[in-house]
Specification:
Six copies of one chain form a homohexamer.
Chain A (H helix, E strand, L loop, with lengths): L7 H11 L12 E4 L10 E4 L4 H9 L4 E4 L13 H12 L3 E4 L2 H5 L4 H8 L3 E5 L7 E7 L1 H11 L5 E3 L1 H10 L6 E11 L3 H7 L5 E5 L3 H10 L2 E4 L2 H20 L4 E2 L3
Parallel strand pairs in A: 2-3, 2-11, 3-4, 8-9, 9-10
Antiparallel strand pairs in A: 1-4, 5-6, 6-8, 7-10
Bound molecules: fe (ii) ion (FE2) (6 copies).
Protein name (chains A, B, C, D, E, F): NGG1p interacting factor 3 protein, NIF3
InterPro entries (chains A, B, C, D, E, F): DUF34/NIF3, DUF34/NIF3_sf
Keywords (chains A, B, C, D, E, F): Metal-binding
Chain lengths: ~260, ~260, ~260, ~260, ~260, ~260
């Protein structure tokens, strides 16, 4: 891979056109994370879900000098620089690797991570799940089995499922070859908080998201909401791969995947 | 099952001797949850991890009139009574089922949920993991494989494991038939927050707890902490079964298990 | 009394048309308090100022299955259900009595509790006392004695009065048979906080409201504001009786008064 | 009245020995309120419950140069000086009247306002009602009628009473000429908040205090607590008159009562 | 000096037309500070930067009965009146001196303190420095030496300067007789907080304001921002003198300067 | 300079014995700031008041690999790493320079920055100025002129002085060659906040500290407190030089001064 005359600021410009920073929810740590001279020519661009230590090490080893990640390097701020953060920053700074993140703006934007999932499930009449643009809510025409098969093929091999029988019953009670319109909600990443499950249960038959924990599972059972936990990783990497292609097409270079 | 002259207040007295309320961490909603005349004779005692709607329904169907759960009915308070909460309260009140919870006090107390885990893994030199008494930290003499086998047999069939190779390497580098002293931390229920993982990584080789999510997994990988997610359910139900026996021995009656 | 085919949701629909929920001030606990199936046919409707234990018991004894109260069941939320709250909820739930409240929305709305008072005193040029719609401010044409007589006849037999002499002096100094335009403010319920008295003193000659306490009385004296404490009960029940009639006319049934 | 060589600091010294400032509850605005040179000789000492505008005017007219009040001049702080506060401060400052308050420290201290009430009702086995020293709880030997008579004679002519019948029934059920030990709680001033009523209902048969409002009355009824509202004024002025005598005896001068 | 029929309210009206109160930033303690009858005829008007004790004493000694100050009498509110505040209030109230302040509204308004500085430096293309109207940002055509000379002549004899060399270098590198367009920011009073310096460094070559402290100086050095500390006093009094003239012209009287 | 077998952890151990971390006031960002392997041998040790960009650059240029500063690198935490912070961290990390700070613990500890000032002025009967150990209060035997001369010789050439005349008058009124006991308070660094001045005015005749601003100056004038502003830099560097010697004596090496 070699890029002719591409600078950090050019890449950032494309990302910010695709996923406008002003879409991000308040308090999200998006944008330039670590850097640096944005006018330097970039040789290799890396992409990852997380700016983890292993991703940062791989970026260095592969000669990446611009690293895009979906998750920011920090949620909570720090004022001393030791341990793992020291290690990460040292590698990035010594090797002058620019780190840039688009997080909830990439979740929310057109053709972003949530739109990608809505497309994957062929949802119709798609709306925002939340007023701030996070998640999608739409109509799935098919059986619950169909939804599960798509999830297993594209998101994760072994999804956790809650209340499948409730949706199956709906399907069985409908005519027309078990085909039925199901209201499906999706939210890439961590969407299975108790608050979200409570909210989504008012609109959806099926909710696909990630990071299901014990209390959320109990709540979903109580509320009779069918939940598919496709994993935080799985529900985000699907759209991230598509975003990778958007960048590649725009810059006419190949990006280096570092954790997917 | 039949209990001679046992009243709610007698059962509560035993529970509070076993798991003193003053051990609970601040803000935990422990003690009497729903009730009621504590002087009435009790016919049947139920026990469950969660006061979920299905547990409450089973309790009614089986004629339970005193229900003990580890998790409280509510973490955040409410001021209207509708939906699932209405359903639960209605069943409990109509059938005069007393609901009582011992939560972090049962996690912390002698022979409580964390002591049960420490015993299960035959930990030695056992200390509190946190100053408030939550969790345990001790020495395990054996291989990582041994730990995993105990987990699979008693906690959950398919635990999630992070950084197994790091501990395996330690074992391989030690002499004496791969037997080695490993520092093991355990915390029943939800212990795999990023904050906990960060804290535990300073003391332990292996951390067994529940509810691992994406960002916690990444952090554990970065910190080189070996984590075994035995599930919130699995790590709590093990000790809860033992607590069930303590009550049964004391009252000389059989308790009705409702979700384990 | 017997109601043909009236369901809870029909009654609620009328109430919410009369006193739109969106009028309520932020944080007010209005709407459905306890319930339940809103599609069940309702036999008897009760109405009260407070969902007190004695009101709830009377409601049960009189066969009420829909109870409307002006005051909500709780201001501050709870997470255990014991004592008086247990008693109230048990009676309501066992007997499937729906409890519904319209509080500040009923104070504020057209023909609501404050409009009722404004009409009672024949105020002219009536405006909101507060920007949020609470209270009324208008012109009373008459003597202070006239105001007091209306209060004694319709609100409470023995109102507490502060600074009567100040308004009397104004009357005496005016010509025309002591008849004079007085600026009168009214606020149903608890309106005699120090903050309110301070605020009202800038606009009004006379302030009629409820729940006068020591420090408020001293402040009114200092500010020279004439205050009539007609009682929290008195200033609210007057309009509540009219609201009772609105429901009766609409549904063509008689409501059962439970505390007035 | 004439005082030989008495300075403000001498009076303050006596007050602070009687009602030590460190007894006051946190955030209470006690001590020197307005002043001034504390070394000047004092001619006349005034005493009042409230530093109201009318009290301040009377103080000036009667030549008072040291004014003691139970209530502080302000609870919430200010940063502009206009209106009534301007008037009060102007009079106090122009006439060099020192204003000094002992509030919760005088409520709490030995022989203070609450002890005065405990003595009035001849309570036995007297304890603090609250851990911070506010209020008193003791045993009254007699009928409820006896309590009411004392209240009417010494506190207020027309006390408001809630749940009298509950205590009367207790009396009637006891032998020995209707004489019975009643648990009586007293709290001078504003003690009839919902929080206090809830708290006191756990210990006392009868609760005597001031400033009863609608919601507190309903709560007392529900909890079956007998409440006597003797008025904020009445329950404080009784002890304040005794405190006046203590000062007079100590300084051998007569104090000028300004609002009682 | 003698004023014909000028009342406080007339002076206030002029001030509030010149410096509208609604321009003030939230939480600023502007407007009437101490007073009083605003309908009384005013004999002498005083003006000062600070309502300090010495200013208040001078005001009294010179017979001032209306005192205007830029700084309010208090930023944080109080609830006892002792010490220096007692002294100030006593003098003001005894002598019925009205105290009135226009603070950030006078900083912000047209021809106010910041506009005065923008004019002094002949800035062109002047904009607000902050969105709320505080400060000014404009183009200075000349050398850094020119800026310094104006500062020394009109603001303060010995300004503190940081990073002069950076701006000098810019001048030297430009042609045209060292004349160059410099971006100059000004903020009257306390403008040299770290937050402000950080903000201003993104727009300006030179920043003129007051109250430079150690950490701010270090930050300015790091950011390469040239800072001139003209003093809180110096940067405010310059415009205050002009405001004095505006009042004098309007009322056709001479004001008494009390601290400048 | 060359150090035999000295590691970062050895230097840190000495610093923490001299200035125990537990002395620091809550929330102070002390200790290891940036690093790193603490077991590496150290060649050169640098010392500075501030970890400013120019100090960091000098440290690199002089081959420093352990840098001690009094001020921490950050007060408020951050979560992106750009601009000046990027530059500083990059230099420190690339060159593996350990940065370590002792701030309020060095102010407070025995022989720390405040003790150094107390010794400089030969104060007697020295106590903590604040309960937390910050500042010193003691007796100076001499004239105000003596204090000023010491300040000019050792702290700063041109100190700002407020209310000198008040202390001078005290001196002149005392006998014994103008020698008099003066109560002197000192506080290294930023001690001239309005809050501090108010507090110190109750104990001291003279207050020596740094960072005087306009409003503090006015307050000191009003309170009649004599203030000497010796500068934040001056009042801290005096003791820092002594601390440098302590390290040099202990490690038997010369430290490199970077900003003093
Ligand atoms: Fe995510
Ligand atoms: Fe749990
Ligand atoms: Fe009300
Ligand atoms: Fe009181
Ligand atoms: Fe200012
Ligand atoms: Fe400092």
């Amino acid at each position: 891979m070699h890029i002719k005359d591409v600078k950090s600021k050019d890449i950032i410009k494309f990302i910010e056109t695709f996923a406008p920073p002003e879409l991000a929810i308040e308090g999200d740590n998006i944008g330039l994370q670590v850097g640096g001279n944005l006018n330097r020519d970039i040789e290799k661009i890396g992409i990852a879900l997380d700016p983890s230590l292993s991703v940062v090490k791989k970026a260095k080893n592969k000669g990446v000098d611009f690293l895009f990640t979906h998750h920011p390097i920090l949620k909570d701020p720090i004022r001393t620089f030791t341990g793992v953060m020291y290690e990460k920053l040292k590698i990035l700074m010594e090797n002058e690797i620019i780190l840039y993140s688009a997080h909830t703006n990439l979740d929310i934007c057109k053709n972003g991570l949530n739109d990608a999932l809505a497309d994957l499930y062929h949802l119709k009449d798609v709306k925002y799940l939340y007023d701030n643009g996070l998640g999608r809510l739409g109509i799935f025409n098919g059986t619950f089995e169909d939804i599960l098969n798509i999830t297993k093929e594209y998101i994760t091999k072994n999804p956790t499922v809650v209340n499948a029988e409730i949706v199956n019953n709906k399907n069985n009670n409908s005519k027309n070859n078990n085909k039925k319109d199901l209201k499906v909600a999706i939210l890439s990443g961590y969407g299975l908080s108790q608050k979200s499950i409570n909210y989504v249960s008012k609109f959806a038959d099926v909710y696909i998201s990630g990071d299901l924990t014990h209390h959320s599972k109990i709540l979903a059972e109580e509320l009779g909401l069918c939940v598919i936990d496709g994993g935080h990783y799985g529900t985000e990497v699907y759209g991230l791969k598509l975003f990778k292609k958007y960048i590649e097409d725009y810059l006419n270079v190949e990006l280096i995947s570092l954790d997917f």
